[in-house]
Amino acid sequence: MNLKLRSNALAGFLFISPWLIGFLILNLWPMLMSFYYSLTDFSLLSPPKWIGFQNFMEIAKDRYFYNSLRVTFVFVLLSVPLRLMFALMVAMLLNRDIRGISFYRTIIYLPSLIGGSVAVAVLWRNIFGINGFMNDLVSLFGIEAKNWIGSPGTALGTLITLSVWQFGSAMIIFLAGLKQVPKDLYEAASVDGAGKLRQFIAVTLPMLSPVIFFNLIMGVIGAFQSFTSAFVVTKGGPLNSTEMYALYLYQKGFAALHMGYASALAWILLVIVAVATAINFSVSKYWVYYENEAGGRG
Predict the structure, then answer these.
(1) Looking at beta carbons, which pairs linking 276-285 to residues 24 or more positions away fall under 8 Å?
(2) Phi/psi at 41 (nearest 5 deg)?
(3) CATH number of the domain at 60-284, out of 3.40.630.100, 2.60.40.1120, 3.90.550.10, 1.10.3720.10?
(4) pLDDT of residue 294
(5) What is d(CA 256, CA 128) in angstroms, rounded to the nearest whole number?
(6) Rounded to two decimals, what is the model's pTM?
(7) Nearest-CA neighbor of 44 among 251, 254, 265, 278?
(8) 166-175, pLDDT tens digit by residue?
(9) Residues with Cβ < 8 Å from 69, sequence gap 6 or more?
(10) Measured between alpha carbons, how far is 78 from 70 in angstroms, rounded to an integer?
(11) Contact predicate 259/46, CB 8 Å
């Protein structure tokens, strides 16, 4: 019996060995090395020199670090809710049986397939440039043309708009969640006299709360790591107005060659994301509802 259990365990490890090897080599080992480098003075051009927590102490006095935190938190707090709102709104519009609905879903989802690419970021930069489409559009309303990505007051807004435009992945998940909401709940609410708005608040949102929570967690994590748009569209922006955390980390590590400092920044970002995720999980018990084993709500 023990021999059979051992053979089954060995077979299981053999099946998952590709993932285990990939995790150890591509994830765990780089993380351990990153933590080691965060405690060293490492410039990529010379061997790392142990300096303890000096990098972290220097970060605590770095005003550009605090600026990148401020920009990133503004980006997260604005882009994530707006993206979820648009994704849910469009998902509800597409959750109906009309002719050609599959085509409409595909067209709306396409921007998310290419949204993180450099090509789209370059396109976005041209759209909001001084001679871009946005100025042609606002000129129709008598608004003076401006360089949207070159102005400190609007540069971050262009990146938030780009993030909101890429709502396709969240929309697909919302659409799948809407398909699972029982129709008899809406019928019962309608019999009780509930209108469309009341049905949305009392039926749709509670039933979708686990899906909303999942999209919220993934959106927050992704927003904290946003890099391509800030790097390609604005390159940190005027007066560092779009120098998000990941971009500042990149500049320290690969432009200034302060890899030890950049590794320390990476671990601080990990802690920030972990804390934000923990806060979301701790408050989720007040608004996220799951099906219990008896089939009720709990």
Answers:
(1) 276/220, 276/224, 277/217, 277/220, 277/221, 280/213, 280/216, 280/217, 280/220, 284/213
(2) -100, 105
(3) 1.10.3720.10
(4) 39
(5) 29
(6) 0.88
(7) 254
(8) 888 899 999 9
(9) 245
(10) 12
(11) no
